[in-house]
TrEMBL record, chain A:
GO annotation (BP), single: DNA replication initiation
A single Gene Ontology CC term: nuclear origin of replication recognition complex
Organism: Falco tinnunculus
SUPFAM superfamilies: P-loop containing nucleoside triphosphate hydrolases (SSF52540)
Subunit composition and interactions: Component of ORC, a complex composed of at least 6 subunits: ORC1, ORC2, ORC3, ORC4, ORC5 and ORC6. ORC is regulated in a cell-cycle dependent manner. It is sequentially assembled at the exit from anaphase of mitosis and disassembled as cells enter S phase. Interacts with DBF4. Interacts with POLQ.
Protein role: Component of the origin recognition complex (ORC) that binds origins of replication.
Name this polypeptide is given: Origin recognition complex subunit 4
Similarity comment: family membership: Belongs to the ORC4 family.
GO molecular function, one term: DNA replication origin binding
Main localization category: nucleus
TrEMBL record, chain B:
Signal peptide limits: none
Domain Cdc6 C-terminal per the UniProt entry, residue ranges: 505-585
Physiological role: Component of the origin recognition complex (ORC) that binds origins of replication. DNA-binding is ATP-dependent, however specific DNA sequences that define origins of replication have not been identified so far. ORC is required to assemble the pre-replication complex necessary to initiate DNA replication.
InterPro entries per UniProt: AAA+_ATPase, AAA_lid_10, ATPase_AAA_core, BAH_sf, Cdc6_C, ORC1/CDC6, P-loop_NTPase, WH_DNA-bd_sf
Gene3D superfamilies membership: 2.30.30.490, P-loop containing nucleotide triphosphate hydrolases
Any matching Pfam family: AAA
Compositional bias of kind Basic and acidic residues: 117-132
Species whose genome carries this gene: Falco tinnunculus
Database matches in CDD domains: AAA, Cdc6_C
Single annotated GO MF: ATP hydrolysis activity
Residue span(s) of domain AAA+ ATPase: 254-405
Organism superkingdom: Eukaryota
Quaternary data: ORC is composed of six subunits.
Protein name as catalogued: Origin recognition complex subunit 1
């Protein structure tokens, strides 16, 4: 009776737990993966204020402007802009008073496409449904005329957001940028151009006429936080929100996160990542890997989860391929490594590799790996297909396969590291790998 | 079309046309005083009571290929509208569909002659009888007819007295009706507005833009490049030169070219606009003969040949293709006219009009030399030696030697520009203005830059003085604004890079020093990187990790990289000087 009850209670418990776990997974996964452009902001209050003031002036006073948001990938440029826009939309005066045009350098690859997209997003009168009528020249004239007719006090301000701004620079003659900046510097429809880019040399790319018309406002995002703040971000990103349905579980979870942030190994793991990159996206990826380990029987993240995730994250992709190779193929790679050492990275061909391999067999292995040449050739071609070696120039059909010059796409450090973990590696092969002269 | 319909058409039936935009559309109101259109279901007869001459019924629609019954939606709308019209037939807002009669066919010619309503029925019957003959006639007349249509149309519009109803009631069922739904202001489904009639416009804002309140806000508004000052200081000489040039040509009634050059932001376009403005005022006062004015900008054209299209459109309002426009302009400028006005044409960003054959430039500069052209061209570009550098001899010789170059502003001039814009508004310290002017004059002499810095400085000032009382812009604010705009971002970027990214840069330097060449492969740098890590007692990264670091630095353009498919044989160069990196990394 008693056991049955406890069993049932356990069952209910685990049922509730399962619910909790799936909730946690859902919330955190959404935070790490889907929140592109809407996540939280960390340590950019100054830039945020600057951008917000600028946008406010555009909307409320009808002041034209232009600005660039510059920062490395994953530094939160889009997030910053989206946050500012969200706050802006909260102001009553703004809601119906802003037209937004979003362009992306990867999508609008030339002026013509960009122009159609602008016309479409502005719902100008030459748009019916989703189609833009008229030729390229007509569209441009139409758009410019529309913008010219407006004036500061009565027209609706237009906000242009140019994502991947650096790609617009490569449009022929930079005419799109010229025209946008020109409107923003003349008494026409109020227009603000915000460009997002990761290139630090962006101003040098602008043509002098375009550059003169750009207002030179630059907002830099630099990931300029230190490790202490990084830990705080880690905590914040992993904590459950207050409105989590199961309060006790959330409390337990958050306490655990608090505890984790003080843990030595966790700090080491994070420090390691922090030293590699300050990009928050890689932190998200790490946490994502760790969170995936959570199950009903393992409801809280542990330090070892994070450590394991970091190990997975730091895995060398090319060296991983070596683990799956046959001993013969590993031997060939070692032979190539020695050739690289001898000839200082000059390209080699199959015959040279085969000779080097033969030397090893004759001296050391006594026919243990005595394969026919075609078999060795097959192994070599497998390596070619895995792109661990690559021909230095395009191979013609007629070229003899043995004499095609190739290069090894592995570093000797990678090879040595991979051999350390290679399963059942024969000792003499290992010795040979350390030194090509070991058979002497 | 009659065959398609497969039934008899009553004289008062019209069709709902779904195909928009015939060139020959004219509003029915211009022909008949007022009409009523009643929607009917197929098979219904027009009620006898309404069988007046000015009432029409619509049963079917035509979409360019075949007849279909009216969609229920359209039907209801029309019905509603006609009821509205019926209730208040006398009010001006009553349903008077300014339907558009497409005068595709030319029976109208004969119809125009029908002066009274009474004749109408006769003519109709005549039409009915001579239908076949009319058709034959039409076939034989072919093209000639279509050219005559516009004149017929003009006649109709001018003499509203004519009662022309026949196009509707003709038994030739080639007449259709398109309706503008003036009454409901919403376009009918299936009748997209024709792009030809679209007006370019940005929607208006729902509430007025806020007026500037504080001194700083007022100053900012005046300092915006777009703000049009009352006068252009520091360009009086250039202004006078251009003014005199154009004025003398205007009075003489001849043509000519002037080439104006200068670096960006020296007030070329603004000065020329000012000249035109003054000339226009003078023309209004009858001091000088009146003239036509047009402006094109090379950057605002999709193709150099579009210049013709734009010029023609600005001068005559015609819209034609580029080649045709060139012919028409040629005719316009080369034929003598008794009362021909002089044309002043501004060509901004001239260098963009360059083509391989240079025929656009050639034509532009050739026209003023013609005897009857009366064309004055003011060409603007950035480079002083543009005519020598990119133009063929025959083009540059036609451009002539009337040149003017705008020098970059000196600091005194910039100072004057700011002061005149501020116009006694106490927003800036004198020293602050001087600092800005000197700084910009030393850099580029670009007035836009100067104004932008001032504008940014007012923002910084406003931000700093939020809590305290109002302040004016001081030196410190200007310095901050200048730093913000012109400081090199690289040093800061390196200082904020992650540890391994910094070590990688050090490794690059070390490898360069070792090899003595300013280029290295990732593999070589990787070895240096590992050595550096060992020296500092750190865990060395994997090659994948280093590749990631390398591509991140490449994306910021601290490094210049080859395509990444070469993996560890990818070559790396620095995009900044080695000293900058040393300086950025040393301070820590």
């Amino acid at each position: 009776m008693k056991t049955a009850m406890s069993k049932r209670r356990f069952k209910e418990n685990s049922e509730a737990n399962r619910e909790c776990i799936s909730q946690v997974q859902k919330i955190l996964r959404e935070r790490f993966c889907h929140n592109y452009g809407t996540g939280k902001l960390f340590g950019v209050e100054h830039q945020y204020r600057h951008l917000l003031e600028l946008l406010k002036r555009t909307v409320i006073h009808g002041e034209s402007n232009s600005a660039l948001i510059i920062g490395p990938r994953g530094s939160g440029k889009t997030v910053l802009l989206n946050h500012a826009l969200k706050e802006l939309m909260g102001i009553k005066q703004v809601q119906m008073n802003l037209l937004e045009v979003r362009l992306n350098g990867l999508l609008q690859t030339n002026y013509k496409v960009a122009l159609k997209e602008i016309t479409r997003q502005l719902h100008l009168e030459n748009v019916v449904g989703d189609k833009v009528f008229g030729s390229f020249a007509e569209n441009l004239a139409f758009l410019l005329e529309a913008l010219r007719k407006g004036d500061r006090t009565s027209s609706c301000p237009v906000l242009f957001i140019l994502d991947e701004f650096d790609l617009f620079v490569h449009h022929k003659g930079q005419t799109l940028l010229y025209n946008l900046f020109d409107v923003s510097q003349s008494a026409q429809t109020p227009l603000t151009v915000i460009g997002l880019t990761c290139r630090q040399d962006i101003l040098e790319l602008l043509e002098k006429r375009v550059k003169s018309r750009f207002s030179h406002r630059q907002i830099y995002l630099m990931n300029s936080f230190d490790f202490k703040q990084y830990i705080r971000i880690f905590k914040e990103q992993l904590s459950l929100p207050a409105q989590f349905p199961d309060e006790s579980f959330a409390q337990k979870w958050n306490q655990n996160v608090q505890h984790l942030s003080g843990d030595r190994t966790v700090q080491d793991t994070l420090q390691n990542l922090f030293h590699h990159t300050k990009d928050l996206r890689s932190l998200h990826l790490l946490l994502m890997l760790a969170v995936s380990n959570i199950t009903v029987h393992h409801p809280l993240i542990t330090a070892s989860d994070l450590h394991e995730a970091s190990r997975q994250y730091r895995m060398d992709s090319k060296a991983n391929i070596i683990h799956g190779l046959s001993v013969l193929e590993v031997c060939l790679i070692i032979a190539m490594k020695h050739l690289n050492d001898i000839y200082e990275g000059e390209p080699f061909n199959f015959q040279m590799v085969y000779n080097e391999f033969q030397k090893f067999i004759q001296r050391k292995a006594h026919g243990m790996y005595n394969f026919e040449k075609p078999v060795v050739m097959k192994a070599f071609e497998h390596l070619l297909r895995l792109e661990l070696v690559k021909p230095i120039e395009r191979t013609s059909v007629r070229a003899q396969r043995e004499y095609i010059l190739v290069k090894l796409f592995l570093d000797s450090n990678q090879i040595m590291d991979a051999l350390q973990v290679y399963p059942n590696c024969p000792t003499d092969v290992k010795q040979w790998a350390v030194s090509s002269l070991s058979w002497l | 079309k009659r065959r398609l319909l497969k039934r008899k058409v009553s004289p008062q039936e019209v069709f709902f046309d779904k195909v928009p935009g015939y060139d020959t559309d004219i509003p029915v109101e211009t022909i008949i005083k007022r009409t009523t259109v009643i929607p009917l279901l197929l098979g219904e007869e027009l009620p006898i009571t309404l069988n007046k001459k000015q009432t029409f019924c619509v049963k079917q629609s035509w979409d360019g290929k075949c007849f279909t019954t009216l969609s229920s939606d359209t039907f209801l709308k029309l019905k509603e509208a006609s009821k509205k019209g019926g209730n208040s037939p006398n009010s001006s807002s009553s349903f008077t569909p300014s339907g558009i009669v497409s005068l595709l066919k030319k029976e109208t010619e004969s119809v125009v002659q029908s002066a009274t309503k009474n004749d109408e029925l006769e003519i109709q019957s005549k039409h009915g009888d001579s239908k076949s003959s009319v058709r034959k006639k039409r076939c034989s007349q072919g093209v000639a007819n279509s050219t005559r249509t516009p004149t017929a149309r003009k006649k109709l519009q001018l003499n509203g007295m004519y009662t022309v109803i026949c196009p509707f009631s003709s038994f030739e069922c080639s007449m259709f009706c398109t309706f503008f739904c003036n009454f409901s202001l919403q376009p009918l489904p299936g009748t997209p507005k024709t792009p030809q009639n679209a007006t370019p416009e940005i929607p208006r804002r729902s509430c007025e833009a806020q007026k500037p309140v504080t001194i700083l806000e007022k100053a900012r508004l005046r300092l915006h490049v777009s703000a049009i000052p009352e006068s252009l200081p520091c360009r009086e000489e250039e202004f006078q030169d251009i003014y005199n040039f154009v004025e003398s040509k205007l009075i003489d009634g001849t043509g000519g070219c002037m080439y104006i050059s200068g670096v960006p932001g020296t007030g070329k376009t603004a000065t020329v606009h000012e000249v035109i403005h003054c000339l226009q005022q003078a023309a209004e006062n009858d001091d000088i003969p009146s003239f036509q004015f047009a402006e094109i900008n090379g950057m605002k054209l999709t193709d150099p040949h579009q210049a013709y299209v734009q010029i023609l459109q600005l001068l005559t309002g015609q819209k034609v293709t580029a080649t045709h426009a060139a012919v028409l302009l040629e005719k316009l400028f080369c034929t003598p006219g008794p009362k021909k006005k002089t044309t002043v044409l501004i060509v901004d960003e001239l260098d963009l009009l360059w083509t391989r054959k240079q025929n656009v430039m050639y034509n532009l500069f050739d026209w003023p030399t013609r005897k009857h052209s009366k064309l004055i061209i003011l060409a603007i570009a950035n480079t002083m030696d543009l005519p020598e550098r990119i133009m063929m001899n025959r083009v540059s010789s036609r451009l002539g030697l009337t040149r003017m170059s705008f020098q970059p502003y000196t600091y005194k001039q910039l100072q004057q520009i700011i002061s005149s814009r501020l116009n006694n508004l106490k927003a800036f310290e004198e020293d602050a203005i001087q600092l800005v002017s000197r700084k910009v004059a030393a850099l580029s002499g670009d007035a836009r830059r100067c104004l932008d810095i001032c504008r940014r400085a007012t923002e910084i000032c406003e931000f700093a003085s939020r809590k305290r009382t109002q302040e004016i812009v001081r030196m410190a604010h200007i310095t901050e604004a200048i730093d913000e705009m012109f400081s090199s971002p690289y040093i800061n970027a390196i200082r904020n890079a992650s540890l391994h990214e910094q070590i990688f840069l050090k490794a690059v330097l070390a490898e360069f020093r070792r090899a003595g060449v300013e280029e290295a492969t990732v593999q070589e740098i990787y070895r240096q990187h590992i050595a550096l890590c060992r020296m500092e007692g750190r865990q060395s990264p994997t090659l994948s990790g280093v590749m990631a670091i390398c591509s991140r630095l490449g994306a910021c353009r601290l490094l210049l990289l080859e395509s990444s498919k070469k993996y560890l044989h990818m070559r790396v160069r620095l995009n900044i000087s080695q000293d900058d990196i040393m300086y950025a990394l040393k301070d820590e």
